Amino acid sequence: MTRKLKASLLAVVALAAIGAVSATAAQASEFTAGAYPATITGQNIGGGHTFTTEAGAMNCNVTFHGEMAAATNNLTLTPTYNCGIEGLAVDVSLNGCDYVFHAGETVVMDTVKGSMDITCPMGAKIDFKITSMVTCDITVGEQLGLKSLIYTNKTNAKDVDVDMNLTGIAYTADLGCPGAGLHGNGTYSGQTTLKSDNEGTDAFMAE
Q1: What DSSP designation does 88 have?
Q2: Looking only at Cα atoms, what is the longest distance across the chain?
Q3: For residue range 23-61, what is the model confidence (pLDDT) as tens digits?
């Protein structure tokens, strides 16, 4: 039986099977908008996003922006950050890096698991610069398959909530930071609502 959930913008969709699919088989999902091209935007909800490293927990307000030309399982979004940590400002430079959100297995109707990649130009890294008497730079380079994400299709609102609970993030803390060195214990958590500027008339119909 083939089942597909259409999201307001993009979202989450539960899958189409090729041939017969057993009840335990993983289902592939994709992001869809009501019409294309579509511009996808996002805004954190709740208390913001939290990126935790050896230097402590940064709290950030985040927006996202991306474009969709067609339905896809891989959605590239560019974040914009406004962060702080323990009363100190954090200047964030993306240096050309983006986030790629992957739609994975459908858990239940309107709920899909996923993962995220950080992609960067060769040699580039995201720089979280903590401003203080001694500047601390936390840099995050390209890495793939960070988990986990949960996408929830919000039919009435015509948008999609993304719960991000990423662990095992690799980063480098420079000599101005507590725990200077290379680490793999970074965590990132927060919730974002994603919307499309091109919802279409059938953006949230299930079929």
Answers
A1: E
A2: 63
A3: 334 556 888 888 888 899 999 998 899 999 999 999 999
Q: Is the pTM of this model over 0.70?
A: yes
What tens digit of pLDDT does each residue of 83-125 get?
999 999 999 999 999 999 999 888 888 899 999 999 999 999 9
What sign does the CA torsion over 129, 132, 136, 138 have? negative
Which residues are bridge partners to 62 per DSSP? Answer: 81
CB proximity list for 175: less than 8 A, separation 6 or greater: none
Task: Report the residue count for the chain.
Answer: 207
Output DSSP code: residue 8. Answer: S
Pairwise CA distance, residues 23 & 40, whole Å? 32
Q: What is the distance between the alpha carbons of residues 134 and 21, in angstroms, rounded to a whole number?
A: 58
Q: What are the φ and ψ backbone dihedral angles of 82, each rounded to 5 degrees?
A: -135, 100
DSSP state of 71: -
Q: Chain centroid to CA 207: how far?
A: 26
Q: What's the gap between Cα 64 and its chain centre?
A: 9
Average of per-residue pLDDT across 65-72: 92
Which amino acid is it at 18?
I
